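queue> holo job accepted (glycine)
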Amino acid sequence: MSEEQKQSDNRARPTTDEFREFVASGWAPRAVATPERAEVAAYAAQRREALAAAFPGERLVIPAGGLKVRSNDTDYVFRPHSAFAHLTGLGADREPDAVLVLEPLEEGGHEAQLFFRPLADRDTDEFFGDARYGEFWVGARPTLADMEAELGLRARHIDDFEPAVGKDAGVVTIRVIREADTQVAGIVEAARSAASVAQEQAAEQDDALSHAASTLRLVKDEWEIDQMREAVAATHTGFEAVIAGMGEALERGRGERWIEGVFGLHARHQGNGVGYDSICAAGDHANTLHWIKNTGEVHEGDLVLIDAGVEVDSLFTADITRTLPVSGRFTDAQREIYDAVYAAQEAGIAAVRPGARFSDIHAAAIRVIAEHLHRWGLLPEGIDVEGTLDTEHGQYHRRWMVHGTSHHLGIDVHDCALATRAEYMDGELAPGMVLTVEPGLYFKADDLLAPERFRGIGVRIEDDVVVTEDGCEVLSADMPRTSADVEAWIARIAQA
Ligand code: GLY
Ligand code: MN
Ligand code: MN
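queue> job finished
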């Protein structure tokens, strides 16, 4: 639940009983139309069923999380915990302080109950006086009936949560996703302590629930894959706007900021916003892997590496990188590096198929990177491709590509973060998994081991793929990728 804000009354105004009465009166009746059942509701129900089946007879508590203070009395924009979003289908902005409880039934199975703060009546102080939750300040929320209609689960008032969650503690095992909301976790812990449940065992049980909710997202259902398609299409639009605005980024100065802003505009327009802080890295900044400061200039002749993704309203995000020549054409050195990264990416994509291991993608891509580094004479003397790929002794190539080639992608940009190594890196790829393939090569301006012509050039190419029955589909296949196609893309947009 929400963090406490320090309150001061230095801007408060007196509220009289006369005002209370006045402000509660004279409003048109509330709309009575019931919301339609959300398309995601049936999918979310299946996800809840799959999770609950792993914990028969137990009470499972999945909080949305609360508002977080940004500074003083302003909060960050609310984003629900990913497990809550996945298991309810509620996306952007919904619902601070809510808690999903999967309540075990005597006859077996679970009932989904969503505890939340419903729309307050107009005769409450909250209606006009609560700047954090009140309708006057942040808009109307759904009623309990609205939520039941929209999601097809039982809705309950948040005030009923504490007594409900602690009922029969000690008899019923209660697990909570603790990291989603420390206050909710505290309520659950208090109930368990009162019932003398051993803390250490309870903590392990909680971790197992968090882990199960995270790995439930390893394979996406068809609705999730559709969301990914939407996220990728919106990201494509954002990249095209960036290309169209490249001239302005040059002319105005502070060009990385301009690129970030143009992409952000389209991310917000098409979706909820960016799925992670965009990396808009011109020239040598591309060699700083998480360059999110975006404070630099863009110059003619630079490459600009843009790693950005639109998060759609359901919170699924794309994660795409294109490295673009600002002037429209790659120099010979830029193209040499770009084509090497492209070849590595092709090898990585070719390795994506059911039954392969997740780590096979990196192995395929990094071999191509190592081959190029060897051909360019950059590996230490006496070290060949096999030598550098040797995980025990070599790995010299990592100087120029230190990151992994792939990660799971979904509601979180680095999705399924609680999967074990056996489930993730060593796990088998299966249809419905969504991954990135994103090799790169990074030659810092001050890297004296790099040929002079390569110094200050960084390239990454990142695409999003879904594993199919017999291989994979590149979700971002419509976004040009080869050096020649990227040049043609830029020329086409410049002419439009
Ligand atoms: N944008 C972060 C990543 O590519 O993993
Ligand atoms: Mn990525
Ligand atoms: Mn990325």
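queue> The first strand starts at residue 59 and ends at 63.
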